[in-house]
């Protein structure tokens, strides 16, 4: 008689089915709880104050009661703290001081900035601390659950909880990436540069294209930005193109002059990014030193060419 087929996932390698609570029904918490529900865990409580929070909870966690944060901790074995970074320390201290933290509760925050040290007040009360930060932007809609598939999570946890933390991430469809406690702020800064600042740059580019008369800037930028992102992820600095990487000082000066005339608020950002791009292009051998001199002069002066060779930039460094 053949033995029964083995479960490919050994239960010893993953946490038991847990009751799940969410403190802070922003864009992240309900999506993570809904993803855990798909993995067999059971959401039981959520806290949220704003009308938007209530709507998100209703959309992603229907029929789950809205209660106070203390009640969430009373009902759930795994509690997701999904509040803004600056609110997290005060929330943890308040929950610990009021006796809301039960020994043995898994307490996981989703802040990129913090590791598990921020959970020390709750840990002293017996909580098991986890830091599980999804490297993903969230919309607050059901599409977020799908986007978690293959999403990297920055994971920080005590050694004895590392396997549990990684198992929870895998059950949500994510890929755990271990981040040391002291490296969390740098890790989060890198993601902010890559994602948050990208949104600002794209939105600004679309505004400028509209000002230039382009009817559908999103359609124009889509293929360009998609190719640029793909090239950058594959090749890093070697993917740099454009007037800064080529050392076209005259073109860059014209850009700055036009921005000053039509979108002065965009000048500072353009100059900052152009200087950084020039430095990286020069360091990687893409920008010739003899061209860099004129270019850096334009970027230092801000808006004019004059006095340098060939109509190049005045003022060099």
From TrEMBL:
Species this chain originates from: Streptomyces paludis
Gene3D superfamilies: NAD(P)-binding Rossmann-like Domain, ProC-like, C-terminal domain
Protein name: DUF2520 domain-containing protein
Pfam families recorded: DUF2520, Rossmann-like
Highest taxon of the lineage: Bacteria
Classification via InterPro entries: 6-PGluconate_DH-like_C_sf, DUF2520, NAD(P)-bd_dom_sf, OxRdtase/DH_put_Rossmann_dom, TM1727-like_C_sf
Domain Putative oxidoreductase/dehydrogenase Rossmann-like span(s) in chain numbering: 13-134
Residue ranges constituting the DUF2520 domain according to the UniProt record: 151-276
């Amino acid at each position: 008689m053949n033995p029964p087929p083995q479960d490919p996932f050994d239960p010893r390698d993953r946490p038991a089915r847990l009751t799940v609570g969410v403190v802070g029904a922003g864009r992240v918490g309900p999506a993570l709880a809904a993803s855990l529900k798909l993995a067999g865990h059971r959401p039981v409580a959520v806290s949220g104050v704003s009308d938007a929070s209530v709507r998100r909870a209703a959309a992603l966690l229907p029929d789950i009661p809205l209660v106070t944060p203390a009640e969430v901790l009373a009902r759930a074995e795994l509690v997701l703290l999904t509040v803004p970074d600056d609110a997290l320390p005060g929330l943890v201290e308040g929950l610990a001081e009021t006796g809301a933290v039960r020994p043995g509760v898994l307490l996981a925050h989703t802040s990129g900035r913090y590791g598990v040290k921020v959970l020390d007040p709750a840990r002293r009360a017996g909580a098991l601390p986890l830091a599980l930060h999804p490297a993903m932007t969230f919309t607050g809609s059901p599409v977020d659950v799908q986007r978690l598939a293959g999403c990297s999570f920055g994971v920080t946890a005590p050694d004895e909880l590392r396997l549990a933390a990684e198992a929870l991430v895998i059950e949500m469809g994510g890929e755990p990436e271990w981040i040391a406690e002291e490296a969390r702020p740098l890790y989060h800064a890198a993601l902010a540069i890559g994602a948050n600042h990208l949104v600002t740059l794209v939105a600004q580019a679309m505004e400028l294209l509209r000002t230039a008369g382009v009817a559908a800037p999103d359609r124009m930028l889509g293929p360009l930005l998609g190719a640029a992102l793909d090239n950058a992820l594959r090749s890093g600095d070697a993917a740099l193109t454009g007037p800064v990487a080529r050392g076209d000082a005259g073109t860059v000066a014209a850009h700055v002059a036009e921005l000053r005339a039509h979108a002065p608020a965009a000048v500072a950002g353009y100059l900052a990014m152009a200087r950084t791009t020039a430095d990286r292009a020069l360091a990687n051998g893409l920008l010739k030193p003899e061209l860099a001199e004129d270019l850096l002069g334009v970027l230092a002066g801000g808006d004019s060419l004059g006095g340098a060779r060939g109509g190049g930039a005045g003022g060099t460094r």
